[in-house]
Amino acid sequence: MLLFFVTNYALAIPPNFTTKEIKFVSEGVSLAGTVFTPNNIQAAVVIVHGSGQEKRMLNFAATLANNGIAVLTYDKRGVGESAGVYAGPEVGTNNVDFSNLNLLSLDASAAVNTLSEFLSNEKITIGLIGGSQAGWIIPMAAEKNKKVKFMTIFSGALITVKEQLRFQFYTDGDKNFWDTHPEEDARKHVFNDPDRYEFIDTDPKEILAKLSISGIWIFGGKDIQVPVKLSIEYLDVLKSKRKPYEYKLFPKLGHNTAFSDSEEPMKDAINWIKNISKLNIHK
């Protein structure tokens, strides 16, 4: 199987896809994005943002499209060419409150409807892909939209938002954290530390317990933003209840699994998406 990986949007070889800039409406706001259409479409995804002021992810989309996966990537609301109000720490608002995560999941759901209409082919399986904060948003969007048939999540927490923040505050950006701290110590802080901020929390396990679509989580063992072992334990519980969820652990990688120096996480994600799509087509 031939896999193309894009490190620069100015491709050295002719791309196997075409692009079209579009706009679509979500909750009364116009969002701007780009659709990548491969010459031979095998699956389709909407890219869901992580936290921060994220514009459309062109390099990521190009890599997927060059491997036969149609993509809609868009500027987050209030960012780039998208209208609306951006919520995030840079502007003094709390982007992890349930109301904002829910709004972003509505945007992702609207993007799925837009991509579905653009492709106008019922045999193409559509899913969601993203990392970090998208680990909470993607299940919420999937619960809202039955067109979503699979989830591909890089470094997404299976714990609540408040628990994840406790862990992140405790690790304090220390890249060598796991060299000096045992798992048990980290868990004590996840479950017992006082919260620095008050907001309506989100528990992904509650939503994932309701879903029946396939999902894969790709983790890095050195992650200092998400407690990976704990998240994997929760995934194992869901799997024991016959949920079609999988995970892949890369012990030497950190939080940024999708864009690490290793091509293996992206390669695994692409192959998994293609296999899931084939299974859905033949159902």
Automatic annotation (TrEMBL):
GO molecular function: carboxylic ester hydrolase activity
InterPro entries in alphabetical order: AB_hydrolase_Est10, AB_hydrolase_fold, Hydrolase_4
Domain Serine aminopeptidase S33 per the UniProt entry, residue ranges: 41-165
A Pfam family hit: Hydrolase_4
Name the record gives this protein: Serine aminopeptidase S33 domain-containing protein
Organism: Flavobacterium reichenbachii
